[in-house]
Amino acid sequence: MGRPKPRRWLQGCAVLAAITMVLAGCSSDTDTTGTDTTDTTDSTEGTETTETTGGEGAEPSGGSFSSQLGEPSFLAPTSQCYESECAQVLNTIYTGLLSIDPETQEQVLGVAESIESPDGLVWTVKLKEGWTFHNGEPVDADSYIRGWNHAAYGPNATQTGFFFSPVEGYEDLQAPEDEPKADPKAKELSGVKKVDDLTIEITLGEPFSQWPLSMSYTPPFAPMAKECLDDLKKCQDQPIGNGPYQIVGEWKHNDNITVERY
Question: Among candidates 32, 14, 46, 29, which has minimal Cα distance to 259?
Fold first, then answer.
C-alpha cells in the first residue's frame, strides 16, 4: 500500500508472558465492576495454558484462561504499538472503527456507524452513539482526533505515525529533512476535521479507495482518552480502552497481564 517502512522494529519477542482473560458472566450483559480477579497461572516457555470452567458442552458461566505471547514493548495505543504482542493485548481492550472478517474479508463495523467517500479522497466517518472509555469518558470525534494527531506528530517519535502519511497535512507535522531538530510547521493534521461530536472528515493527499482497510488496524487508529494523553507514562502500562475487556491490576513485566470483562 505504499507505506514507508518503520524506522525500527520493537524488541521483546524473546520473552514470553501470559495474558489471563477473566470472563465473568459471559452469557449476560451484567457489569463486572468490583469483581476481584488475580492471575495465578505460572507460564511455561513454549507452552499454551488454558483454564476454563464447566465440562465439555457446558453453557458459558464465567471463568478464566491464559494465553502466552511475547513481552509487549509498549501498550499505549496510537503511538508505539507496532508489533503483534502489543496488538494482541490492545485488540482485547479496544474496539476499533471497523475490522476485517478473516473468512469473508468483508468489513465489519465496530465503533463506526459508516465510513464513506464519494471519490476516495474525502472520507466521512460517522461514529455510533453511546460508546465510552473504561474511565467513563465519551468515545467521540475528539477522542479519535487527539490520538491521531499525537501519533502523526513527528517530535513524538511514534512507531505508528506513518499510518497517517496519506492524510493531507502529514508532512507539516514532520521536521524538515535538512533541519531534523527544528519544530514542524503544525501540530494537527489539516486533513482531519471534526464535523460534529460523532462525525470526522478525513481528506487524503490523493484518492485511495482502500483507506478503510488501513483504518481496520486498531492500534494506530484507536481513540485516545484525554486521561491517557495527559499521563502517557501511566497509559503505557494501563491503557484506557473502550473494548470488551479492561486491564486489571499491574502489568507484571516479563510475567503477565490480566484483563477482565468490562
Answer: 32
Locate the domains of the chain by residue range.
Answer: 16-261
pLDDT tens-digit profile of 83-122? 788 888 888 999 999 999 999 999 999 999 999 999 999 9
- The answer on pLDDT for 222 being more than 70 is yes
Whether the pLDDT of residue 40 is over 60: the answer is no
**Phi, psi of 97, deg, nearest 5:** -60, -40
pTM of the model: 0.77
Of the candidates 10, 14, 154, the one whose C-alpha atom is nearest the C-alpha of residue 75 is: 10
- The rounded distance, in Å, linking the Cα atoms of 259 and 262 is 9
Do 83 and 13 form a contact (C-beta atoms < 8 A)? yes
Q: Return the CATH number of 16-261, one of 3.90.76.10, 3.90.190.20, 2.40.50.150, 2.30.29.30.
A: 3.90.76.10
